[in-house]
Amino acid sequence: MKLLLASLVFSIVCLSAKAQQSNLIIEGKNPTSLYLDGFSESEGKLSSGEVIKVVCFGGGCNLNIEYKGRIVLAQLIDSFDTIRVSEYDFADDGDFQLIVEVILNDSNYLMIFRYGSGMIQKLFEKEIGYYKTIVKKNYIEYYMPSYLEAVWHYYNGGFFQLCSN
Predict the structure, then answer these.
(1) pLDDT mean over 126-142
(2) What residue ranges do the domains of the chain occupy?
(3) What is each CA distance from 15 to 8, 20, 39, in whole angstroms?
């Protein structure tokens, strides 16, 4: 009985540890800075000096950026366990995009936003689960357990799917 209880506890611990795991890998020559790595009320700064916050209110969560005394916001998913926001230059042109990884207890979500001069626009959103996802200089690779599932190429300010199995 003790052995059964111990294996059940071990299984629950392993499953909960797996639920918080991230398989998002960000590569490239430009350094990626982690701005937020926390829970529902997190705050950080962009390279431009603007304050970026995650605010949850009334069952929804937003990414808020303070720009010249006003708030610019982008809607995220309803709730999450952990969020990570990084700045990344896909086209190597000096315009940075925001990579947002939202970790929920049963899945992970990847969102990419274009941000500049007080305007924000969602460019990409995908539920990536716990599968390996690699962000490279101008594309994103998404892997299933045994093969490359899809590639999205960044071109002219948007993402286009190149291949899918």
Answers:
(1) 91
(2) 22-129
(3) 11, 9, 20
